[in-house]
Amino acid sequence: MKPDWRGTLPQLEDLARKLGLEWSPVIFEAVPDSFMTEIAVYGLPVRMPHWSFGARYIYQLLQRHMGYSRLFEVVFPGNPGRAYVASSNGLADNILVSAHVLGHADFSHNNMMFRRSQDQGAEHIIEHAASHARQIERDIEAHGFEAVERVLDAALSLEQYIDIDRGLRRENYAEYISAPAAPTDDAFRTRFASLGADDKPAASQRRLRAPLPPHPEKDLLWFIATYAPDMESWERDIFLAVRAESFYFYPVYATQTMNEGWASYWHARLLREADFIPQDTYLDAIKCHSDVVRPVAAEEQIALAVNPYHLGFTLWEEIIKEGGVEYARQIMREDDDFSFLRNHLSKKMAADMGLFRFQKQSHGPVKVLDQDIDELREALLHEKYNFGAPRVSVAEVRSNGTLVLEHNSEIDRRGLETESARKVLDYVAHVWRRPVVLRTVDAMSKAIELTTDPATA
Amino acid sequence: MPSDPSGSAPADIPNAVNDWYELFSRGSRDWLRHSEKIRAAVRDHLPQVVASSDIIGDGARTVRVPVRMLEHYRFKLRPDANAQGVGQGSAKPGDLLGEANAGNKPGNKGAGGTERGGPELLLEFKVDDIIDWMWEELQLPNLQPRAGQSDESEWKREGWDRRGARSRLDRRRSFKESVKRRSMDSANKGLIDEDLRFRQLTRRRQPALRAAVFFLLDVSASMTEADRQLAKTFYFWVAAGLRRVYRSLDIVFIAHTTEAWEFSESDFFKVSGSGGTVASTGLGKVSEIIKARFDPNSCNVYLFYASDGDNAMDDREAARVELENVAKMTQYSGYVEISSGLRGSQSETSKLFDAVAALGLPSGRCSIRDANDVASAVRHFFTREAQAAAASDVAP
Asked: Using a CB-CB distance cutoff of 8 angstroms, which residues of chain A are in contact with residue B22?
């Protein structure tokens, strides 16, 4: 009988505990490659149906067929956590994978962003996602496929528009703001009051209706689900379902470099110290490890992208070498990718890794710019801000119900691409059921307004 | 954890895989929905499909239409031609890197995936489906096949008789007779001669449901490759539309310059000639073949002539006579002017067809400037033809 990787798992766990890792129990499940691909595409083992996933799925299948990367594992944090491993993994792959999974489990159990999202319900994200999918199946039965699809078109296109700081569960805005109380302490008013007027004005009885929204609102999904004038309740529920899943996805997204680096560090270390693993299995596993964390594909000398596994792995190795495991665990608990790279990617590390900043030129080759560390950090993080999406927020709702969205082109430094923006407005106008306006800038940085009116669309 | 395929090959399947996962693929389900949506989108752009479809030879039942994957739109920034990024490797500031080095290795996981575009797909559509859509979308009328006084007849089954050839014995019917008889008269045995029933055949006159269509193409030097492609596309859709109506459709391909030749379909669209245009030769060939092979009384004959409109001046009278001659034998004679260039005055050939139409003969013309006009030309013809058919039904 061939040795089963599950046989070594308890020993690996003991070793991990000895090295200070702590995690909630993880359930392992081996699944076919096609299912791994689906998990990668949908982000969750069970998720609502939508045609855009189908397009991505085929795209992924093509990539796999053409020999690009395949997935070994996906872990879903929770209590218990769930790890899906590809059934096509070899023995050595799976020993590596189970060590890797322990690293992830440790990370998601301790990292602040994950803890917060777990407290907000992500602990049971798989169950929640399954119930969302069921809810949407019921909606399809009740309201027809096309109607549900149109709502999902809108909700999923705004997937990244949540406000992580304000959290998953939010109160509605206060409906009124109290008018500023009339000042009573200046000399004139004091004297006036002392004259003993008969009819005192009722003290601050005036209430003012609060503007909607009272401040620019980032959480478009929540705002639309809460304040859309004529949305059906089942449509609101779809928006909220998509939103809940986005809250789960955010920490995964915002700690990708740290998290993958951490898991890669620990799988390497666990395997190195695991004397119970046969030598040849260890060598196979280590080869697999070096494929994962190598900076550039084997045949290339230079890559115009940075492999987050490599970047994270290199940083953690350095941090642990310099400051020890306890110091590293502290960072792991408190940081996300933004603070992690800003605080710990040093000039020397960047130079050792050979990181450089480049600029595409509209015609001709790519130009290598510099290796300035501040610029490098910023360029690495640039794409990741705001869940990787342009900054669009709700500016106001006009008295006729028109929804006004505002794109912050100052921070994004460019306007929105109008063709796709218009299509998104069409999606949104369908559920908002009133005109929707978007303010952004054109190619010449001149302010423009795009409008969609569902009545004429 | 993604990996390059250079990693160790799958050695063994370590534990039982839950078979349930193989049963249902969400990815495929949603992909089917995507394809459905593409089909709907294609349907909304029929004229372009008609124009761009790559129609292959003889009796093609499907066409291939290139389509892009549908994009699920999101807000995105304008593309930045001078975008900056971070790379890794042995490059020094100031180096210029070719695009070839742009090895991209996305570590894709979780949400926020914004990969766009993707490969172009070739979708295959059944020609019949597209034709049906065209009829729906363009609200084209269905032609009534016109029944000629046909002498075409065929044997049809009709009725039963007690005598007949053994091969026409209707066993079911015979057995029924036997049951009937035995229920009246219990004293009897199985099947007797009285019970036997034989199918009968009679000869019936069939209305002519045959049609022949002549595709006459000017291949003189002035017709470019693009012009011929337009004519080909037009011919294809006309033939497909006529096939909806007629059980059997004969297609005759004739090309002409100063002479005329009949071609097989496969050769027809490869023909390119040189020299001038003498339309009367082509029209003469058409009437010659009609007389030889198709009796206008039993067969609906259609002519479609595609040309750029230049005809030799000295051929004017001869062509007029030939066209008149042909028009008398056809259900319809159509002229499609392929005018990819600019044209000022009315062309020689279009005057010719106008003259014939003025005589009250069933003919018409329209022009195609580019691929997008093909659908409207097809529509033009079928609408007219349906009106003409309706009118002729009223007439005695």
From this structure: 32, 34
**pTM (predicted TM-score):** 0.71
ipTM confidence: 0.87
Nearest-Cα distance to chain A for B113, in Å, is 9
- Please tell me the distance from the alpha carbon of residue A87 to that of residue B249, in angstroms, as a whole number: 57
DSSP state of B105: -
In a domain, A385, yes or no: no
Residues B53 and B89: beta-carbon distance below 8 Å = no
Q: Tell me which residue has tokens 């299912």.
A: A35
Task: Kindly list the residues from chain A whose CB atom is less than 8 angstroms away from the CB atom of residue B28.
Answer: 54, 57
Omega of the bond prior to A80 within 30 degrees of 0, cis?
yes
Give, as one character, the DSSP assignment of residue B169. Answer: B
Q: Name the domain boundary from A344, A375, A409.
A: A344
Could you give the C-alpha distances from B305 to B157, B211, B333, B379, in angstroms and in order? 42, 17, 8, 16
Is A356–B88 a contact, with Cβ atoms under 8 angstroms apart? yes
Alpha carbon distance A260, A100 (integer Å): 9
The answer to whether A434 and A420 are in contact (CB under 8 A) is no
Q: Where do we find the tokens 């700081």? A: A165
**CA nearest neighbour of B51 among B366, B337, B367, B371:** B371
At A201 the pLDDT is 54
Distance, in Å, from the CA atom of A131 to the CA atom of A136, rounded to the nearest integer, reads 9
Which residues, including other chains, have CB under 8 Å from residue A393's CB and lie 6 or more apart?
A216, A217, A218, A220, A405, A406, A408
Q: Where are the beta strands (DSSP E) in A47-201?
A: 70-71, 73-76, 81-86, 176-178
Q: Which CATH superfamily is domain B210-394 in?
A: von Willebrand factor, type A domain (3.40.50.410)
Q: How would residue A328 be classed by pLDDT, with cut points 50, 70 and 90?
A: very high
